[in-house]
Amino acid sequence: MKILVPVKRVVDYNVKVRVKADGTGVETAGVKMSMNPFDEIAVEEAVRLKEKGAATEIVAISMGVAACAETIRTALAMGADRGILVETNVELQPLAVAKLLKAIAAKEEPGLIILGKQAIDDDMSATGQMLAALLGWAQGTFASKVTVDGANLIVTREVDGGLETVQLTLPAIVTTDLRLNEPRYASLPNIMKARKKPIETIKPEDLGVDPTPRLTTLKVAEPPKRLAGVKVKSVAELVDKLRNEAKVI
Amino acid sequence: MTALVLLDHENGAIKQPSRSAVAAAAGLGEVHVLVAGSGVAAAAAAALPGVAKVILADAPAYAHALAEPLAALLIALAPGYTHLLAATTANGKNVMPRVAALLDSQPISDIAAVIDADTFIRPIYAGNALATVKSSDAKKVITVRAASFDPVPATGGAAPIEAAPAVDCPSLSSFVSSELSKSERPELTAARVVISGGRGMQNGENFKLLEPIADKLGAAVGASRAAVDAGFVPNDYQVGQTGKIVAPELYLAIGISGAIQHLAGMKDSKVIVAINKDEEAPIFQVADYGLVADLFVALPELAAELERT
Q: What ipTM does the predicted assembly reach?
């Protein structure tokens, strides 16, 4: 079974993002970029399935500016076999990404596509579900456990208030939640090996997809700041304030 | 303009985040709601104020709210609506993007405000920025950040109930089992008071120190990601950008330093209390009332003080 793993290049998890003064977006110039953390979990899961013998090939896909090739290299160093870069300077939103992935899936015919449950930049949490819809496949979102069982996939999902397990007919879509696994660090030899792995570069036009965004960002602003209140000296004072000042207990 | 809201329910009882989604939809036009389940009653949905019509889809396929049949149902109903909404819950996030793709529409996830029929405000970068976005799609598919909209009351309305048409959906997935945390306490996202523990709790056993206080205040118990990652408590306790977003009247942060990712999940709370022995902890920058103290001393004191009434 072949597995596709889309990986997104985003502002690094540890960077404190700043809204641009002109309100057009957040500052990305000179900011450290990394693979979306949920996508790292997706790559790791694919590699583990391959190590267990449940998968034969892993293809990492990224979309966007030429620098997304670095994100693919990271996936290759973790254990993906080859990469596909869909290169464009157009802002890609989940609908366009799902359409591009559908076109790639038609060519690659994977048995499973594993995606991060959301990207930590736009926080849309949509691409996996949309791709499942466009392909007419089953979806196992927010997965904390994935097991291949013959022609089916057993997925345990993180839902409100606990866990839910579903059985999906393959081919299927999985989106990863935090506890699915702990992604490995690429070893130096694997980073060296990854340099020799192939990355194919294509354009959205090659896939017959119009990536024009449907959402226009009119403004990006800082959220209202919450001001620090007072320090109380004792538990008794705290309870008194909550009772008689804030009146919340 | 007419909006259709997919309701999250438990045997027909409407979950609070969905009542917030109804409140958001009220800003868009006439509101219809959809209750899908197996052997489910629509009376609670009909009682929501401001709802003009309830659509009841009662079929075995909807018993476990699987995304595939629910999306097919929403697609069948979509021609009558300009906006399709659900709360940003596990269910809403699972279903709505699938619906959007089939309508060739870019979903608008987790809206925090409605500006007009096409324009919405939504948080990005874990709530560190707010984007105002305008959709050019004919049909808008939206999930609603429950903490940003006051829920409509649970009763007061009397909407007519109509049966949904039967919709075919190829069987792609099936429910196997569920393992829900059993608790006498309110759900995190619906609680009036939330008390959360962080890494400072040191272990899972110590979370018991929160219980007498939670009992007294009728509070839900939550945790920071650090406490969850350390294995003190299960994942569904997690309050934060990648966990639950809460906005209770009172939020007590105990032994929580206040990482950005945690603040993103609770900073819309009305009153925030922080107890932490590190007076430099960032949580104090957002707390209305801060107490610099050893939580192992302060928690029993707090429980005793509340007991004294």
A: 0.94
Which residues in chain A touch residue B307, judged by CB atoms under 8 angstroms apart?
none
Cβ B196 vs Cβ B254: under 8 Å: yes
B298 in reach of chain A (CB within 8 A): yes
- B303 CB within 8 Å of a chain A CB: no
Query: Chain A closest CA to B137's CA: distance in Å?
Result: 6
- Hey, is the C-beta of A181 within 8 angstroms of any chain B C-beta? no
Superfamily for the A2-244 domain: HUPs (3.40.50.620)
Q: With a cut of 70, which residues of chain A have pLDDT below it? A: none
Could you tell me the residue ranges of all domains in chain A? Answer: 2-244
B13: contact with A, CB 8 A cutoff: no
Average pLDDT, chain B: 95
Tens digit of each residue's pLDDT (9 = 90 or more) over A36-52: 999 999 999 999 999 99
CA distance A32 to B104: 34
- What lies within 8 Å, CB to CB, of B177 at 6+ separation is A164, A165
* C-beta of residue B123 within 8 angstroms of C-beta of residue B65: no
What is the band of B309 on the pLDDT scale with cuts at 50, 70, 90?
A: low
A214 neighbourhood in chain B, CB within 8 Å: 105-106, 135-137
d(CA B173, CA A167): 5
Closest CA to A128 of A8, A249, A2: A8
Beta strands B289-292 and A172-176 are: unpaired
A186/B contact by beta carbon, under 8 A: no
Q: Determine the residue of chain A that is closest to B137 in CA distance.
A: A214
Smallest Cα distance from B294 to chain A, Å: 11
Give the C-alpha distances (Å, rounded to integers) separating B266 from A230, B157, B172, B189, B286.
18, 31, 37, 10, 10
Give the residue from A85, A102, A109, A79 showing the smallest Cα distance to A181: A79
In chain B, alpha helices (H) = 16-26, 43-46, 67-77, 90-102, 211-217, 225-229, 260-266, 295-307
Q: Cβ–Cβ of A167/B93 closer than 8 Å? A: no
Chain A residues near residue B124 by CB distance under 8 angstroms: 26, 121-123, 220
Question: For chain A, how many helices (H) and strands (E)?
Answer: 6, 13
The CB-side HSE value for B68 (13 A sphere, CA atoms) comes to 22
**For A228, which of B64, B241, B287 is closest by C-beta distance?**
B287
Cβ contacts (< 8 Å) between A141 and chain B: which residues? 67, 93-94
Three-state secondary structure call for residue B4: strand
What is the pLDDT at residue B20? 96
For residue B231, CA distances in Å to A26, A140, B151, B283 come to 34, 24, 33, 22
State residue A178's pLDDT score. Answer: 86
Give the per-residue pLDDT at A225. 83
Closest CA to A78 of A202, A154, A180, A182: A182
Closest CA to A141 of B96, B296, B57: B96
Closest CA of chain A from B281, distance in Å: 12
User: Which B residues 243-282 touch A at CB under 8 Å?
Assistant: 244, 249-250, 260, 267, 270-273, 279
